[in-house]
Amino acid sequence: MSKKYFIKTYGCQMNVYDSSRIADMLKNQGYEETLCQKDADIVLFNTCHIREKAAEKLFSDLGRAHLIQLERAEQGKQTIIGVAGCVVQAEDEQIVKRAPYVNFAVGPLMYHKIAGILHDIENKNAKESVINTEFPADSKFDFLPENKSQGACSFLAVQEGCNNFCTYCVVPYTRGAEYSRPVAQVLTEARRLVAGGTLELNLLGQNVNSYHGEDENGKERNLAYLLRRVAEIDGLKRIRYTTSYPADVDDDLIACHKDIAILMPYLHLPIQSGSDRILKAMNRRHTSGDYLKVVEKLQKANPDLRMSSDFIVGFPGETDDDFAKTLEIVNKIKYIQAFSFKYSRRAGTPAAVMENQVEEKVKKERLAVLQDLLFDYQTKFNQECVGKVMPVLLEQKGRHKGQLIGRTPYMQNLHVETKDDNINKIIEVKVTSATTNSLSGKEI
Are both 4-132 and 389-443 of the same fold? Predict the structure, then answer.
């Protein structure tokens, strides 16, 4: 009987990508996936450290996993518990102290070591918990198995790490310095994914538009060059990229939104705050005016382009006037989607020890106001789509018989009644109704 693995993923899309690569490694070792933790011989938590309570959620999950580990031990079954990702990089000592039953923990740059670690544990070569949080000299991508198509939509990591050091963010400390994969390596993986059925490819990076991978001749290339090369792949119907940093949006990249027909008209471009004073305190390398100029250029290149963003409210020192400037930005851009959060202290970041920390009550009130405004624009855009015909990439079955769920070019979820054979296909759908979070339509 094959051994089974269970993976729980927290946080960003890069973590989702990492979990899929870990799963590939485990499958290559003969393991099968299970969605039931009690049936798993290996339980792995792939963690995120962006939010304040991420570590506490992890330790709660670890406690429950330990109870299962003990129950299975009584049945003569071994359960290996592992932790991967950014919480390990930031809090490895806490994991050893608070959860000594964890068998191994690896940082986000070392998960390619998991197969070897498991071999040692299963063969009793590891006498105690294995902790690996190194920043390796070699890229983990050189040691991973071939990335398999994940259906009609696949993610491809092209860049990792960040050099920006925003004062609220732990990514430079947990993911390390920026690294860009070589152009040829990316293109090889992209072609393989498309050959395996991928229609939509999403290029991933913590700061994806700082991409600077070398081409076949050793020349450093930017994201615009990479997008144009990827767009040449036969059979690829859609391209996206995320997440971008405003100061790194150059004219070459803007031109791609005019020239590349399969580059989707939706861009996630985080601003975080509309206040220049707060942006400076955050160590963002742009002002609100810089951001607006970039958006103007993008929308001139492609008038159909729509934006989403990230916002942090209640950053240390944020006043009512600062917050009002954030609302002004929202009213100018009219984002069709956004992620918004209360500022949370992250140990080791400069913002955590800044003066004038905003009260929790104020942060909560401001977040509610901001989200109401954001949802109003999201709802309005969705309603404006009613009556339009849109190409929809169908990815999964809906709750009702004969219903499939897909995504429009603008990343909206759409429900449509159609045959199951249309899963992993793009069909034309006329939008018939809209809510804040989804659309419904009729197949054309």
Answer: no
Q: Which CATH class is domain 389-443?
A: mainly beta
Residue 96, classed as helix, strand or coil, is: helix
Q: What's the fold here for domain 4-132?
A: Rossmann fold (3.40.50)
Digit-coded pLDDT (tens) for 136-182: 545 666 666 667 777 899 999 999 999 999 999 988 888 888 999 99
Task: State how far the Cα of 182 lies from the Cα of 150, in Å rounded to an integer.
Answer: 22
**With pLDDT > 70 as the criterion, what percentage of the chain qualifies?**
93
Assign domain 289-384 to a CATH class. Answer: alpha beta
Asked if residues 435 and 385 have their Cβ atoms less than 8 Å apart, the reply is no
Burial 303-339 (b: 16+ CB within 10 A, else e): eebbbbbebbbbbbbbeeebbebbeebbeebebbbbe
Specify the pTM: 0.85
User: What are the structural domain ranges in the chain?
Assistant: 4-132, 146-264, 289-384, 389-443
Over residues 90-99, the pLDDT tens digits come to 777 788 788 8
